[in-house]
Specification:
Helix content is 5%, strand content 35%. With 81 residues, it is mostly beta strands. The chain has a domain at 33-81: SH3 type barrels (Roll). A hairpin with a 2-residue loop joins β2 and β3. The longest helix has 4 residues, at 12-15.
């Protein structure tokens, strides 16, 4: 067997580490929504324009936009209209 001068790789069992689960920045399950928004409220989105909130689930809104139809958007992307 030929050696390359590099240390031998650790066995796969020895190199496995256990880490506590970390919440991803993209996970929004159970994320708390804004308290200043409510179903029926008129809001403005920079891309989709004006619309009315049809449903709220945590920080996700279902908004019926006047020009773009119904979309699901994060509450951080809307302002009071």
């Amino acid at each position: 067997m030929m050696t390359t001068g590099k240390p031998a790789a650790a066995s796969s069992a020895a190199s496995v580490r256990s880490y506590a689960p970390v919440a991803s920045a993209t996970m929004s399950v159970g994320a708390k929504g804004r308290s200043d928004l409510a179903v029926g409220m008129r809001v403005f989105h920079e891309k989709f324009g004006y619309g009315e909130i049809a449903d709220i689930e945590g920080n996700k809104l279902e908004v019926a936009f006047e020009s773009a139809g119904t979309k699901r958007v994060l509450d951080s992307f809307v302002t009071h209209g």
